[in-house]
Amino acid sequence: MPRAARKVIIAGAPASGKGTQCELIKSQLGLVHLSTGDMLRAAVQAGTKVGLAAKEYMDGGKLVPDEVIIDLVRERLAQPDCEANGWLLDGFPRTAVQAAALRAAQIEPDLVLYLNVPDSMLIERVVGRRLDPETGRIYHLTFDPPPSDVVPRMTHRSDDTAEKAQVRLSQFHEHLGAILAAYQSVTVEIDGTRGKQDVFASISRVLEGSAIAA
Ligand code: AP5
Protein backbone atom coordinates (compact mmCIF):
# COMPACT_ATOMS: atom_id res chain seq x y z
CA MET A 1 0.00 0.00 0.00
CA PRO A 2 1.49 3.44 -0.87
CA ARG A 3 2.52 5.46 2.16
CA ALA A 4 0.46 8.62 2.78
CA ALA A 5 2.16 11.92 1.89
CA ARG A 6 3.88 13.42 4.92
CA LYS A 7 2.50 16.52 6.59
CA VAL A 8 5.15 18.17 8.71
CA ILE A 9 5.29 21.45 10.64
CA ILE A 10 8.62 22.92 11.68
CA ALA A 11 8.51 25.34 14.59
CA GLY A 12 11.21 27.32 16.36
CA ALA A 13 12.40 30.77 17.29
CA PRO A 14 13.59 33.32 14.73
CA ALA A 15 16.89 32.08 13.24
CA SER A 16 16.65 28.73 15.00
CA GLY A 17 17.40 27.08 11.64
CA LYS A 18 13.92 26.29 10.27
CA GLY A 19 14.66 27.43 6.71
CA THR A 20 18.09 25.78 6.72
CA GLN A 21 16.65 22.43 7.80
CA CYS A 22 13.73 22.75 5.36
CA GLU A 23 16.18 22.95 2.45
CA LEU A 24 17.70 19.64 3.60
CA ILE A 25 14.40 17.91 4.42
CA LYS A 26 12.89 18.98 1.10
CA SER A 27 15.77 17.49 -0.86
CA GLN A 28 15.40 14.22 1.05
CA LEU A 29 11.62 13.81 1.04
CA GLY A 30 10.41 15.95 -1.87
CA LEU A 31 7.81 17.67 0.30
CA VAL A 32 6.41 21.04 -0.77
CA HIS A 33 8.11 23.66 1.42
CA LEU A 34 5.77 26.46 2.48
CA SER A 35 7.44 29.24 4.43
CA THR A 36 4.96 31.88 5.55
CA GLY A 37 7.83 34.37 5.92
CA ASP A 38 8.81 33.77 2.26
CA MET A 39 5.18 33.93 1.12
CA LEU A 40 4.69 37.24 2.91
CA ARG A 41 7.97 38.72 1.64
CA ALA A 42 6.93 37.76 -1.93
CA ALA A 43 3.54 39.43 -1.36
CA VAL A 44 5.24 42.61 -0.08
CA GLN A 45 7.58 42.61 -3.09
CA ALA A 46 4.65 42.16 -5.49
CA GLY A 47 2.62 44.87 -3.75
CA THR A 48 -0.47 42.65 -3.37
CA LYS A 49 -3.28 43.39 -0.91
CA VAL A 50 -1.80 40.87 1.54
CA GLY A 51 1.65 42.39 1.08
CA LEU A 52 0.38 45.90 1.78
CA ALA A 53 -1.39 44.68 4.93
CA ALA A 54 1.69 42.76 6.14
CA LYS A 55 4.52 45.18 5.42
CA GLU A 56 4.39 47.47 8.44
CA TYR A 57 4.16 44.53 10.87
CA MET A 58 7.06 42.70 9.25
CA ASP A 59 9.21 45.82 9.17
CA GLY A 60 8.70 46.14 12.92
CA GLY A 61 9.46 42.48 13.60
CA LYS A 62 5.84 41.88 14.70
CA LEU A 63 3.53 39.04 13.71
CA VAL A 64 1.09 39.99 10.96
CA PRO A 65 -2.59 39.75 11.99
CA ASP A 66 -4.00 36.23 11.92
CA GLU A 67 -6.65 37.12 9.34
CA VAL A 68 -3.97 38.26 6.88
CA ILE A 69 -2.10 34.97 6.88
CA ILE A 70 -4.65 32.21 7.59
CA ASP A 71 -6.47 32.19 4.23
CA LEU A 72 -3.19 32.38 2.35
CA VAL A 73 -1.96 29.18 4.04
CA ARG A 74 -5.26 27.30 3.83
CA GLU A 75 -5.52 28.01 0.10
CA ARG A 76 -1.94 27.00 -0.56
CA LEU A 77 -2.29 23.70 1.33
CA ALA A 78 -5.32 22.81 -0.77
CA GLN A 79 -3.29 22.96 -4.02
CA PRO A 80 -2.74 19.65 -5.85
CA ASP A 81 1.07 19.61 -5.32
CA CYS A 82 0.60 19.65 -1.53
CA GLU A 83 -2.05 16.94 -1.70
CA ALA A 84 0.14 14.73 -3.90
CA ASN A 85 3.61 15.24 -2.40
CA GLY A 86 2.91 16.21 1.20
CA TRP A 87 4.03 19.46 2.81
CA LEU A 88 6.53 21.02 5.12
CA LEU A 89 5.02 24.06 6.80
CA ASP A 90 7.62 26.51 8.08
CA GLY A 91 6.55 29.38 10.34
CA PHE A 92 2.86 28.51 10.65
CA PRO A 93 0.91 28.24 12.90
CA ARG A 94 2.44 30.80 15.25
CA THR A 95 -0.58 31.61 17.37
CA ALA A 96 -3.40 29.67 19.03
CA VAL A 97 -5.83 31.24 16.55
CA GLN A 98 -3.78 30.01 13.57
CA ALA A 99 -3.57 26.48 15.03
CA ALA A 100 -7.34 26.48 15.63
CA ALA A 101 -7.94 27.59 12.03
CA LEU A 102 -5.93 24.65 10.71
CA ARG A 103 -7.80 22.27 12.98
CA ALA A 104 -11.15 23.71 11.90
CA ALA A 105 -10.14 23.08 8.28
CA GLN A 106 -9.22 19.50 9.26
CA ILE A 107 -5.58 20.12 8.36
CA GLU A 108 -3.51 18.08 10.81
CA PRO A 109 0.25 17.46 10.69
CA ASP A 110 1.53 13.97 11.33
CA LEU A 111 4.71 15.42 12.84
CA VAL A 112 5.76 18.72 14.43
CA LEU A 113 9.50 19.33 14.72
CA TYR A 114 10.35 21.91 17.37
CA LEU A 115 13.88 23.27 16.93
CA ASN A 116 14.99 24.36 20.37
CA VAL A 117 17.77 26.98 20.49
CA PRO A 118 18.36 29.34 23.45
CA ASP A 119 17.89 33.07 22.86
CA SER A 120 21.55 33.70 23.65
CA MET A 121 22.57 31.99 20.37
CA LEU A 122 19.91 33.48 18.15
CA ILE A 123 20.96 37.12 17.84
CA GLU A 124 24.33 36.15 16.35
CA ARG A 125 22.55 33.87 13.87
CA VAL A 126 20.14 36.66 12.91
CA VAL A 127 22.67 39.42 12.29
CA GLY A 128 25.05 37.16 10.34
CA ARG A 129 22.41 35.68 8.04
CA ARG A 130 22.73 36.39 4.32
CA LEU A 131 20.61 35.14 1.42
CA ASP A 132 21.40 34.34 -2.18
CA PRO A 133 18.44 35.85 -4.08
CA GLU A 134 19.14 33.70 -7.15
CA THR A 135 18.94 30.31 -5.45
CA GLY A 136 17.18 31.14 -2.17
CA ARG A 137 20.07 29.47 -0.32
CA ILE A 138 20.60 30.67 3.26
CA TYR A 139 24.15 31.42 4.46
CA HIS A 140 25.79 32.76 7.59
CA LEU A 141 28.88 34.98 7.52
CA THR A 142 30.56 32.89 10.25
CA PHE A 143 28.77 29.53 10.50
CA ASP A 144 28.09 28.86 6.81
CA PRO A 145 30.02 31.36 4.69
CA PRO A 146 28.99 31.81 1.06
CA PRO A 147 31.40 31.02 -1.80
CA SER A 148 33.19 34.06 -3.25
CA ASP A 149 31.10 34.17 -6.46
CA VAL A 150 27.90 34.51 -4.39
CA VAL A 151 29.21 37.28 -2.08
CA PRO A 152 28.52 40.25 -4.43
CA ARG A 153 24.82 39.39 -4.80
CA MET A 154 24.06 38.45 -1.18
CA THR A 155 21.15 40.20 0.53
CA HIS A 156 20.40 40.93 4.18
CA ARG A 157 16.81 40.88 5.47
CA SER A 158 15.61 44.24 6.81
CA ASP A 159 14.27 42.58 9.99
CA ASP A 160 17.63 40.90 10.71
CA THR A 161 18.89 43.48 13.18
CA ALA A 162 19.55 42.79 16.85
CA GLU A 163 16.81 45.26 17.83
CA LYS A 164 14.09 43.72 15.63
CA ALA A 165 15.20 40.22 16.55
CA GLN A 166 14.38 41.05 20.20
CA VAL A 167 10.83 41.97 19.21
CA ARG A 168 10.52 38.78 17.12
CA LEU A 169 11.84 36.69 20.00
CA SER A 170 9.42 38.14 22.52
CA GLN A 171 6.49 37.44 20.15
CA PHE A 172 7.76 33.88 19.71
CA HIS A 173 7.90 33.24 23.46
CA GLU A 174 4.46 34.74 23.98
CA HIS A 175 2.89 32.13 21.67
CA LEU A 176 5.14 29.07 21.93
CA GLY A 177 3.18 27.40 24.75
CA ALA A 178 -0.07 27.49 22.76
CA ILE A 179 1.56 25.89 19.71
CA LEU A 180 3.22 23.12 21.70
CA ALA A 181 -0.06 22.46 23.53
CA ALA A 182 -2.00 22.23 20.26
CA TYR A 183 0.33 19.55 18.85
CA GLN A 184 1.57 17.85 22.02
CA SER A 185 0.95 14.29 20.79
CA VAL A 186 2.94 14.68 17.53
CA THR A 187 5.71 17.06 18.60
CA VAL A 188 9.36 16.05 18.74
CA GLU A 189 11.88 18.48 20.22
CA ILE A 190 15.20 18.75 18.39
CA ASP A 191 18.33 20.27 19.91
CA GLY A 192 19.06 23.00 17.36
CA THR A 193 22.27 24.26 18.98
CA ARG A 194 24.52 21.81 17.10
CA GLY A 195 25.93 22.19 13.59
CA LYS A 196 23.37 22.04 10.79
CA GLN A 197 24.33 18.54 9.60
CA ASP A 198 24.07 17.14 13.14
CA VAL A 199 20.67 18.76 13.54
CA PHE A 200 19.61 17.29 10.20
CA ALA A 201 20.83 13.82 11.23
CA SER A 202 18.51 13.97 14.26
CA ILE A 203 15.60 15.14 12.11
CA SER A 204 16.24 12.36 9.58
CA ARG A 205 16.10 9.76 12.34
CA VAL A 206 12.78 11.15 13.53
CA LEU A 207 11.38 11.27 10.00
CA GLU A 208 12.46 7.70 9.32
CA GLY A 209 11.10 6.49 12.65
CA SER A 210 7.75 8.19 12.33
CA ALA A 211 7.47 7.13 8.67
CA ILE A 212 7.80 3.51 9.78
CA ALA A 213 5.19 4.02 12.47
CA ALA A 214 2.80 5.79 10.06
P1 AP5 B 1 10.06 34.26 8.97
O1 AP5 B 1 10.73 34.52 7.70
O2 AP5 B 1 9.35 32.98 9.17
O3 AP5 B 1 11.10 34.52 10.14
P2 AP5 B 1 11.43 33.76 11.51
O4 AP5 B 1 10.46 32.82 12.07
O5 AP5 B 1 11.82 34.87 12.37
O6 AP5 B 1 12.48 32.75 11.11
P3 AP5 B 1 13.72 33.05 10.31
O7 AP5 B 1 13.43 32.97 8.85
O8 AP5 B 1 14.31 34.34 10.82
O9 AP5 B 1 14.75 31.92 10.79
P4 AP5 B 1 14.90 30.39 10.50
O10 AP5 B 1 14.48 29.64 11.71
O11 AP5 B 1 14.30 29.99 9.19
O12 AP5 B 1 16.50 30.31 10.45
P5 AP5 B 1 17.50 30.11 9.21
O13 AP5 B 1 17.47 28.70 8.76
O14 AP5 B 1 17.33 31.18 8.19
O15 AP5 B 1 9.00 35.41 9.29
C1 AP5 B 1 9.33 36.77 9.06
C2 AP5 B 1 8.16 37.66 9.46
O16 AP5 B 1 6.99 37.30 8.69
C3 AP5 B 1 7.70 37.53 10.92
O17 AP5 B 1 8.46 38.34 11.80
C4 AP5 B 1 6.24 38.02 10.80
O18 AP5 B 1 6.19 39.42 10.68
C5 AP5 B 1 5.80 37.42 9.48
N1 AP5 B 1 5.20 36.07 9.63
C6 AP5 B 1 5.67 34.91 9.10
N2 AP5 B 1 4.85 33.88 9.44
C7 AP5 B 1 3.85 34.41 10.18
C8 AP5 B 1 2.71 33.86 10.81
N3 AP5 B 1 2.43 32.54 10.76
N4 AP5 B 1 1.90 34.69 11.50
C9 AP5 B 1 2.14 36.00 11.57
N5 AP5 B 1 3.22 36.60 10.99
C10 AP5 B 1 4.06 35.81 10.30
O19 AP5 B 1 18.90 30.31 9.99
C11 AP5 B 1 19.25 31.57 10.52
C12 AP5 B 1 20.78 31.78 10.38
O20 AP5 B 1 21.46 30.83 11.19
C13 AP5 B 1 21.29 31.56 8.94
O21 AP5 B 1 22.31 32.48 8.68
C14 AP5 B 1 21.83 30.12 8.96
O22 AP5 B 1 22.90 29.95 8.04
C15 AP5 B 1 22.30 29.99 10.40
N6 AP5 B 1 22.13 28.63 10.90
C16 AP5 B 1 21.09 27.78 10.66
N7 AP5 B 1 21.27 26.62 11.31
C17 AP5 B 1 22.44 26.75 12.00
C18 AP5 B 1 23.15 25.89 12.88
N8 AP5 B 1 22.70 24.67 13.18
N9 AP5 B 1 24.31 26.34 13.43
C19 AP5 B 1 24.77 27.61 13.13
N10 AP5 B 1 24.13 28.46 12.29
C20 AP5 B 1 22.98 28.04 11.74
UniProtKB/TrEMBL annotation:
Keywords: Kinase, Nucleotide-binding, Signal, Transferase. It comes from the Eukaryota. GO terms for molecular function: AMP kinase activity; ATP binding. Belongs to the adenylate kinase family. This is Adenylate kinase. It comes from Diacronema lutheri. The chain holds residues 56 to 269 of 269 of the full protein.
